[in-house]
Amino acid sequence: MLVRMQIERIELFLVSMPLVSPWRAGHGDESAIESVFVRMHGGGTYGWGESSPLATPTYSPEHSRGVFLMVRSFLAPMLLGQEVDCGEELQRRLAPVKGNYFAKAALDQAWWDLAARQAGLPLWRLLGGRDPGVRVGADFGVKDSLDELLRAVGGAVEAGYERIKLKYRPGWGLPMLEAVRRAFPDPVFHVDCNSVYTLDDLPMFRELDGYRLAMIEQPLAHDELLDHAELQRQIRPPD
What is the pTM of this model? Predict the structure, then answer.
């Protein structure tokens, strides 16, 4: 669907939201979540976009302040005053800048929200969705104790979440997973390693086969494609 409009103004906001408790994962611990918000104006209305790559480049090569500067200095000027009539056109205009996917995503989201408002449609329908409902799962970081984690997982199971992700790192690995699976034998679980392991940990990954995980997320370094292929050959992936 084409939505003809000129991008008239782009506003940026760098926001830090303190967390009630630290978010602990393989890449490190976070006491606040930093996000970049984009408000894109055109045709008498505006749309919002958000990017949250975290405050440090430990989760991905990008980080919140870098995203803010990238959008302000390079990407937003490439769009201001331009007519962008579809998402593909937006990406073509941003293509000269290599990578920086978190930064581009903030503008992409803002454009789609703006286009939906211009068209008078809910965003999910403009994107081709058939139903406004979205199935979601629960995600739990490293807790102070196993008892605390088990209470949190129990609450998610009781609330009806269809899948649960557990952060997984050295010191919060197999014993944690064993305790969770013993307490909750039926729900769908997967673990997220945030790239902290190597092929030297292959014996540990083989042990994970016995816990009926839906998947193992980011087990090795983000750019170790050959090692990921070897790991997949060495373990039993889910059906």
Answer: 0.83
